[in-house]
Structure formats: C-alpha cells, structure tokens
Design brief:
By secondary structure, the protein is mainly alpha-helical. It contains 43 helices and 15 strands. It is flat, with a radius of gyration of 36 Å. The C terminus is likely disordered.
Length: about 1000
C-alpha cells in the first residue's frame, strides 16, 4: 500500500489504485494513525485528534464506528493493517509506504551528502524530496490542533530542504536557472533571510545587480514593518559586498571549493554550511515596500518652489502595531502614477478612538519620500476639543506655507475663499505634495482645500463617512482584531508581562473591545505604574459603570472622545441631528446584540423610513454600526456611553415606554411568524394589542422560519427583558410564540429554556393563565424531545385550567398531546381514548383550522395499540391534509410516521419511499434533529429486512450528525435502534 500525507490524504493499493476514505472524520482518524506509524495511539489521543480538547459525550462510540469504517476500507487490501489493543489502536506500515517517511530519509541522505560536499547529490536528493509534496500536509483531513505540531514539523523540514537545494545549486553555478524558483519561495516567506540572501546572490551572479539591490531593500522594509528589526549581520555584509561590486561574490569554478567566500555569504545566514534558520511556516508577509509599490518611472513630478518644502507631519507613533492590510491599501491608493489625471485621495473613517490619526500619520511617514514638494498636515478639529478650523483661514495658512509670495511678487492673497482655493490649486500644480487633513467634520470643511492636479495626494480622516465627497476611495477602520490587540498590548506593557499574566491580559483586551485609544490608555497606566500587576488594571476595567471613566490617562479619555461626537448631535441646530441623539439614547435600552430596522422603529416610535434616516446619520458619524443591511448595533464601549446618556437625559417613564413598544412589537411579530409556519396550530392565546409599528409580513413558512433563526438571540433577550417590564405577561406570550421555530429546531433546546424562564415569571406574578399555557407548551416540547413521562406530567398539570375554561379547541389540543404522551409511555388504551375525545371536542368547537394534528395523534395511538392497518389509513389521510397545507415539516413528519408503519406491515419498498422523501424534506428546511430521526427510521427499516450494512450506515450517519450539531443524547434506556 501507499499512503500520502504531504498534501491531501491519499491511500493506494499495491497496483496504484486509489482507495476512498469517504468521511472527514475517517480521514482525520487515518491521519492521526499515520503520523505515528507502527506505534500504539491511545483512544484519548485519537478522540482529541478528531474533536479537539472537548470531545462530545458520544466520542467513544463514534470513534469505534470510525475505526470500523477505516478497517473495512483497509481490509479490502490487507486485513491486518489496523490492530486493536486494550488502550488504543496501531496502524501497521511497511518501509517506503508513507511519503512523509520517504521525505525524511531523503533529507537525511542530503545532509550526509552536504557533510562530504557532494553538491550534485544534495541537489538531486532535495529535488526528489520536494517532488513528494502535493500541497499543504493533510489538506483535506479536518485534524485538530493536537496534531498541528507534527504537521508544522514537516512544513519546516520542507523549508530546510529548499534552503539546502538552493545552496547546492548556487555552489554548482546554476544561479540563472534557480532565480524563478527562489523568487516564488521568497514571496511565500518574505521575512526568511536565508531565502532572501540566496535570491540576492543568484540575481547578482545573473548580471541583475539592480534587482538584487531592490530585493535587499524589500526585505529590509518588510523586517522593519513586521518585526521592527534590521536584517541580520550576514545579510547586511552581503549587501555591502554588492554595493562595492566585490569580485569574490561572482561564481567561478574555484568558487565551489571548500570555504569559498561567495558561497559562505549565503550559508553564513544559517550559522553553518548545513544548518537551517528556524522557520515559521505561518509568518505572514508584511506591508509592501513603498519603493516596490511603484516602478521607477512613477517618480514624483518635477518640483518648482521658491520656499522650503513644508514638512509638517507629526512624529510617527513609535509602537504602531497591526493594520497591515490597511497600510498596504493606503500605500497603493496614495502613491502617484504616471498616468494619473488628477490628485489621488483616500478617506479613512471610523469611530472615535479607533486609530484614524495614528494610521494616517504612519502612512504619511512611509510615503514622504514620494512627495519632494512637501507634506502638509492640519487638524481640522471637526470633532472634539478645540475650535473648528475654518477653510478660509486654512487656505491662507497653506498658501503661506508654500511660498512667501504665492500670488506673485508684491501681490496679496485673495480675500475670498473661492479665490484662495483657486490660488492653492495653482500653487500645487506640478509640485508633488502630500496633504493630510485630519479630523474633518464634513465635506464643506474639506472641499476648498483639495488640489486639482496629478502628482498630489490627499489623506482625510473623519468620524463622519463623508458620503457626499465627490472623489476619493473610502477605507472604513474597524476595531482591532484579537491578534493585533494582543500585539499592541505587548508593545505597551512588554511581551513577557502579557505572557506571564495571560488571563488578566485577556480581560483587559475584552474590556477595551479592540479600541486602540483604550489600549493606549492601558499602556500609559502600565508604563507609569510598572509595579502594578495587570490584574489591578483588569479589575478597574471589568464591565460596570466605571469602565469608561477608568479608560482615561492624562489628556487621553475614551469618555471624552465619545462625548464630543454625541454632543455635536445633541446640541445641533438641525432637528434631524437632535432626533439622532435621542435615538442614540433610546437604542441603548436594548441589551441584545443588534436590532433590525423594523424593531428599531418600534423602539423609537418612528416610521420605518424616518428611522432609517436617523440610524443612517448615527452610522455616518460612527456612533452606530451597520455591519450588514438592516442590522444595527453599538460597539461595546459606545453602547455603554449611550446607556449612561440615556439614564442621565431620558426620564424613567420614557425609557419604560420605549422598551415596552419593542417588546410588544416582538410579541406580534413572533405570533405572525408562528401562524405562517404552522397555520393549523395556534401557539397561544390571541394577542389583541397591535404594535406601534407594523409587524413583519411573511409570504411563506420558509421566510418566517428564516426570520426566527435570524432573530433568535434577540427573542431570548426579549423574554428576559419582558420578565422585568411592566408587562411580565409578554414573557410567556413570547415564549409560546417560539412554537413555530421549535417545530423545526426543537433539538436546540432554546424553546425549553425560554418556556422554563417564562413559567418562573408567571409563577412569580401569580399568573394562572400564563402558567397553564406554558405547561401546555412544555408538554409539547418534552414530547418533541421524546421525554414522554415529563410531557405527561406537564399536560396533566395544565388540564384542569383548560377543562374549566370552556375553550373546546384548546382542550382538544391538550387531549391530543395527552394521547401522544400515553402512546410514548406504552399505554395505548388511554392514548386511543384521549385521541378520540380530542377529535370529538375539536369538531364540536367549530374551528376552521385543520384537524390533521389531531388525526396524527389518533394514528399514533392506533400504532401503539398494534392496529397497524388502521394507523396506515389515518396516516394517509393526515399526509393528504398536510400536502394541501404545504407545510414541509408536517409533511415530513407524516411521511416518517407512515414509513415506520409500512415497515411494521412488512412493505419494504413503500416504507423506504416514504422515508426517503421525508429525509429530503427535512434536509431542505435545515432540520438537523428531524434528519437524525428520519435516518434512524430508515436504518430500522433496513435492519428489519435483514440489510445490516445499509442499516449500520444510516445509524452511523445519524450518530455523526448528532455529534456535529450537538443534538441532545438519546432518551435514557434507548438508542438509535429503539422502536419509536
């Protein structure tokens, strides 16, 4: 056999024919065994390899199933390959069967050839080793982090083999031939100094000295940008030799001799001729070199000046961290090109404290050599402290900065703004100036300052999105990701300190929520109090009323920064901006992750169109995030500030009324969604009160179900919020209305959780109607999850209320569910009795709803009583009704029930036809729990007819799906094979 690890996992028999290892988990299992060939691998390690540090409760059984699948695959060629021992498994592998082992042997031979300076053999062996690679190791096997070190070992060994290969080729004088290949590897590992040195030497020997020098500049720039360091001594010495055109660098036949200096210039970078620098296979490329971003012919235009070129940029942030993608993008956007027809412009927007100014200054510093006409900088004071800069006055300053006589000898600058703007454009023509306009308020403040000709570039920062700016690319700046945050904290506090106090460092990062200003404040505190443990700072920042106030140090303050944006709206003369400030306060009342446009309209008490305008204005000034169309949320720290303003500036009644509008809207919306999904089954008592705004309209069950899935986190929050509101009954009404979601997603357990919470609320307020309805629906939830005893208890507890209510339809629903609970607890006589009573009551009620659910209960009772032909007849009647209603989940349930009954009647083909259609419908609506049940039913059918292999395949797939989607375990005392 032949096993391939160095790329996608492959298995071939002795004749070269591939063997399929079909499931991802089976491939992961084989990978874990192949990485330790001929050695015992414990069951615990294999479980960790397949599921990570927290394997599911069913891991042991699932592992046995995967081992059986793998053994069947391998046994087709060699039955003794996979051996079982009491504590684990062992995969038997012969010499030469695993490509990774062959790669290791070739590397060992290459090392021996190096020691005897047999460069031809080194080249041949390392080339053969590279040819074994087909891609990333185990690319298609979903291995967990526990196997990552072994995979990384092979990746590093591959890099070492490439180093040796290129070194041998250089010794042999094949520098022309290897330039393309070394270039590819240098692009892949731009910070790897050995590859860079080899490329530089190969270019030099190929007569490409300018490119060799450019390659050195590129690596020097990348090392400085990514690691804040310079090239190593050996690389610098190689560069010095290039500059003086050292003849000893050139290749001659004598250069291949032992101790040849020109070869040592490269090998010294590894420490010794056969050595290897450590390689991190995941080191990303840094920000692009400014010099490499533009060809030489794109040099800045001719400069004409009679006055020293302005150089007004503030100092760069010494510990600037992260933002590699943004740096790359801005360099590309702002670097002039020969074919430009006008100035280049970029606008960096983002919330207060997100690092716009620091990024702008950093970029301007990187680009300053591209603009010999000068670099101009101004803080426009559009937001925050200080008087807002007037464009008229700024034009006067800019003109004076560029020349002592901008309008000509003896002539004053124009007195009007338009005249000054025109003169500035004239002065900037052919000058090549970089202009940074920081903290702009609006377009009116910026437009008069812009140049008009090619060769100039403008970088603008603003909290406002400046949507009406006619030209320029926009770069929205988001809070830092986790990796950049940790790197920034390490730069401020010291990497050793952050590593030693990792838990408290994580707490600080959570509190700062990715905001560079907040992290910079933490760094300032840590620097002035070096004896403080990070725990002390973390405790100050833990979520609470004092977090915003704690994020201040000297003139730096997150609270003050947010306040300047908010007060601009609150104190505006524009009514729309004042409305936006009110919306900012009221939106903080919602503790969920986000709100839709319609939900926001309900909370604010505004029409949807007006709400969209107000939310858009908040988004434009980055006080509100709009991550995708129709969704709005606060940044964590901004939300805390908004809540502070709401408590200070909105009255208690106003806050309660707004939140009640939202909860009422959610109640009406969930009722409409459930009625669309299950039109024949009311979720609860009718909700007579309409919401302030229109509830969403659903065209079909699929749309309503998608809305439920999207809004589920908010609905859970609404149940909790309603419990504390002036209308606690909304808590149980909302929980009941989740019935539509539960018909497909009962297995998530969300409905159970919300119902239990609602029951506690109803009991706390002595709400008997609420308690009865919640107990009724808890009985349904327990039945869906096959907890029939618990279902029976809840239904019997609520029965007296509904028997006394006089509502025949509701009592019929309770009776029907009691019938199913009795069927599930193997009491068919009681089941039949309650099923018939339910149908009788329902028909007497005069309801216009479908009686399919009640007939389904009757059919189930017939089946529990062994009356299979009667059950079949009723199930077919139910199926016809469900098809007419068009509700896919109920059609699937009816088909599954019918299929199980046909199996018991011995009609294999009809049973499998019904069950196969049911499975297709379950998958179509995304019902993982229902799909598992249907797969089990298909497996039971195959098993019933003696088709053991097909049955086992279905049971295995059901078990895998159960583990993948974290479905609840089988009910106690049952398994996949248990009869329903």
């Amino acid at each position: 056999m032949r096993f391939g690890l160095l790329g996608p996992l492959t298995v071939h028999d002795a004749g070269g024919r591939p063997l399929a290892v079909p499931t991802p988990k089976s491939r992961a299992l084989l990978a874990a065994l192949l990485l330790e060939p001929n050695r015992l691998v414990s069951r615990e390690r294999l479980a960790a390899a397949l599921w990570g540090e927290r394997p599911p409760a069913t891991a042991a059984a699932a592992l046995s199933n995967y081992v059986s699948q793998l053994r069947r695959t391998l046994s087709a060629v060699d039955a003794g390959r996979l051996a079982s021992v009491p504590t684990g498994y062992q995969l038997l592998v012969h010499d030469g069967e695993v490509d990774a082992e062959e790669f290791t042997l070739l590397l060992a031979e290459a090392k021996a050839a190096q020691s005897r300076q047999d460069w031809v053999s080194v080249s041949r062996l390392t080339r053969a080793a590279e040819q074994l690679w087909r891609g990333a190791p185990l690319a298609d096997a979903p291995v967990s982090e526990i196997l990552r070190p072994q995979i990384t070992h092979y990746e590093q060994a591959r890099v070492q083999a490439r180093e040796w290969h290129f070194a041998a080729e250089l010794r042999l004088g094949r520098h022309h031939e290897i330039v393309p290949e070394i270039s590819r590897w240098t692009a892949r590992y731009p910070l790897h100094e050995v590859f860079c040195a080899q490329l530089i030497l190969a270019l030099f020997r190929s007569g490409r000295q300018a490119e060799a020098l450019l390659a050195f500049e590129r690596v020097r720039h990348d090392l400085a940008e990514e690691l804040g360091t310079d090239p190593g001594h050996e690389l610098r010495e190689l560069h010095r030799s290039l500059l003086v055109d050292d003849p000893e660098l050139r290749w001659t036949h004598s250069a291949a001799a032992e101790n040849g200096r020109q070869a040592d210039a490269v090998h010294a970078a590894t420490g010794h001729p056969g050595g290897s620098a450590s390689v991190d296979a995941d080191v990303p490329g840094g920000a692009p070199s400014v010099d490499a971003a533009v060809p030489d012919e794109a040099a800045a235009p001719r400069t004409v000046r009679t006055w020293p070129a302005p150089s007004q940029l503030p100092a760069d942030v010494p510990d600037f961290t992260g933002r590699a993608d943004e740096v790359r993008t801005l360099i590309e956007l702002l670097t002039p090109r020969p074919d430009d027809r006008g100035p280049r412009m970029a606008v960096v927007t983002g919330m207060s404290g997100v690092g716009k100014t620091a990024l702008a200054v950093h970029i301007a510093r990187l680009l300053r050599d591209r603009f010999p006409g000068g670099q101009m900088f101004t803080d426009l004071h559009g937001f925050g402290l200080g008087t807002r800069q007037d464009p008229h006055d700024l034009l006067g300053r800019f003109l004076s900065d560029l020349s002592d006589t901008p309008a000509g000898p003896g002539l004053p600058i124009p007195g009007d703004t338009d005249g000054r703007a025109a003169l500035l454009r004239t002065c900037l023509t052919d000058r090549g100036v970089l202009m940074v306009l920081d903290n702009a308020r609006d377009v009116e403040q910026v437009l008069p300052l812009l140049p008009g000709s090619a060769g100039c570039s403008v970088l603008i920062t603003s909290r406002n999105a400046l949507p009406d700016l006619p030209i320029g690319a926009r770069l929205p700046l988001e809070p830092l990701g986790e990796g950049d945050q940790r790197a920034m904290l390490s730069a401020f506090c010291g990497a050793d300190r952050v590593l030693a106090e990792a838990g408290d460092a994580t707490r600080i990062l959570t509190a700062c929520a990715g905001l560079p200003l907040a992290l910079r404040i933490v760094g300032a505190k840590a620097r002035v109090r070096p004896s403080w443990p990070l725990r002390t700072i973390a405790e100050q920042l833990d979520a609470g009323d004092g977090r915003l106030r704690a994020l201040s140090a000297g003139s730096l303050s997150v609270h003050t920064s947010f306040a300047s944006s908010y007060r601009m709206l609150r104190d505006s003369r524009d009514r729309h901006e004042r409305d936006a400030a009110r919306a900012f306060r009221l939106l903080s009342l919602w503790r969920g992750d986000w709100l839709s446009l319609d939900a926001s309209a309900a909370l604010l008490g505004l029409p949807a169109r007006r709400t969209a305008e107000v939310l858009g204005l908040l988004g434009d000034v980055h006080l509100l995030q709009n991550p995708e169309p129709g969704r709005y949320r606060f940044h964590d720290l901004v939300g805390e500030y908004a809540a502070e303003r709401s408590a200070a500036e909105e009255s208690g009644p106003a806050r309660r009324t707004a939140l009640l509008r939202l909860l009422t809207w959610y109640t009406a919306a969930t009722e409409a969604a459930s009625a669309t999904i299950a039109p024949g089954m009311p979720a609860g008592p009718g909700f007579e009160e309409g919401p302030v705004g229109p509830a969403p309209r659903f065209h079909d069950a699929a749309g309503a179900l998608a809305w439920f899935v999207r809004e589920l986190p908010n609905l859970r929050e609404a149940v909790q919020a309603a419990a504390l509101s002036p209308r606690p009954d909304l808590a149980w009404r909302l929980a009941l209305n989740l019935f539509g979601h539960a018909t497909t997603y009962w297995w998530t357990g969300v409905w159970d959780t919300c119902l239990r919470s609602a029951l506690a609320t109803a009991k706390a307020h002595d709400d008997h109607e609420g308690q009865a309805w919640v107990l009724f629906r808890l009985g349904v939830a327990h039945r869906m999850a096959h907890r029939h005893d618990a279902s029976l208890t809840c239904l019997l507890d609520c029965l007296p209320h509904f028997e006394a209510s006089g509502d025949l339809e509701c009592r019929a629903g309770v009776y029907s569910n009691l019938s199913r609970a009795y069927s599930g607890t193997h009491r068919p006589r009681q089941a039949l009795d309650y099923a018939r009573r339910a149908i009788d009551l329902f028909r007497r009620s005069g309801s216009e709803r479908s009686e399919a659910p009640l007939l389904s209960g009757l059919a189930t009772a017939h089946r529990a009583a062994g009356e299979l032909r009667e059950a079949e007849a009723v199930y077919r009647q139910v199926l016809a009704m469900c098809r007419e209603l068009g509700y896919l989940t109920n059609i699937a349930i009816a088909l599954e029930d019918l299929g199980d009954t046909l199996r018991a009647l011995g009609r294999r083909d009809e049973a499998l036809d019904a069950l196969t259609e049911a499975l297709a419908l379950r998958r179509r609506v995304g019902d993982a729990g229902g799909s598992t049940d249907t797969l089990v039913a298909i497996g039971r059918t195959h098993e019933h007819f003696g088709e053991t292999a097909a049955a086992q395949a279905c049971f295995d797939e059901a078990e895998e799906l159960r583990g993948k989607d974290r479905l609840p375990p089988w009910p106690a005392g049952t398994s996949a094979r248990s009869e329903p």
